[in-house]
Structure formats: C-alpha cells, structure tokens
C-alpha cells in the first residue's frame, strides 16, 4: 500500500480485502472520493469515525457484506451499517446515487490503512474488527 496522505494530489492506494482490486481514496472536504478504475464513488467522510465507533461497540468480528446499491445488504454486516436508517446519518453514507453501495468493500481497507481495524484478507467472506 502507498504512503499516500489521503489528499487529491497524493491519495491512499488501497486494495480490497481479498487483494484482487486496487483503488485510490482521498478526502476532499466532507467527502471521501474512491476511484476504482473509471468509476468514482463518494462517501461522507464522517463514515471513517462512525464505522470505527460502530465496530468498537460491536466488539467482535463483523462480516463485510459488500453489495451494489441495487442489491440488499445482509443483516449485521458493514454494508448494512453503511445504509441503515438507524446509523448516525440516517441512511446512506454513499453520496452518488446509483453508486452508493460497496461501502463494505471500500471503507474497511481504508480503516485498516489508518490503523483503526484488523481486516481479514481471504478470497471470500472477509471480516473486520476494531483495534
């Protein structure tokens, strides 16, 4: 992984939990911008602290459960938290309609890079827990 600073000029270079895809992420004001190939996803930047606090409260391993916006998220997963009506923002952390999903795929590697979580790196069914 890169020693990026998380800025538009020097983004973090990350890999999905299984290690199969590389992407970049940076903070731009109140937004996290995630560039995956030609696709740009945006999430509320407060997702970093909110997801970490939720994982701390869970106190154990939580499945990632990554899913596209159009597909339902499995209960109790990071993906479900990222779109739940009872999360701190009252719904989606994703900001770009049609691209609001995949919270469980792209946010946990960033939290790992920031030293906030432990993340599994298996071929499938990865989990995360707060440090």
Automatic annotation (TrEMBL):
Q: Which residues form the DUF6855 domain?
A: 5-131
* Taxonomy, superkingdom: Bacteria
Q: Which Pfam families match?
A: DUF6855 (PF21619)
Know the name of this protein? Answer: DUF6855 domain-containing protein
What does the organism's lineage look like at the top?
A: Bacteria, Bacillati, Actinomycetota, Actinomycetes, Micrococcales
């Amino acid at each position: 992984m890169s020693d990026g600073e998380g800025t538009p000029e020097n983004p973090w270079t990350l890999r999905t939990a299984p290690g199969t895809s590389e992407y970049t992420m940076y903070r731009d004001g109140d937004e996290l911008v995630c560039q995956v190939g030609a696709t740009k996803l945006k999430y509320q930047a407060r997702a970093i602290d909110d997801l970490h606090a939720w994982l701390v409260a869970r106190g154990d391993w939580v499945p990632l459960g990554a899913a596209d916006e159009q597909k339902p998220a499995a209960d109790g997963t990071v993906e479900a938290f990222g779109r739940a009506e009872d999360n701190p923002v009252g719904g989606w952390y994703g900001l770009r309609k049609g691209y609001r999903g995949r919270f469980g795929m792209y946010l946990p590697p960033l939290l790992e890079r920031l030293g906030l979580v432990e993340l599994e790196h298996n071929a499938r069914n990865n989990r995360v827990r707060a440090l």
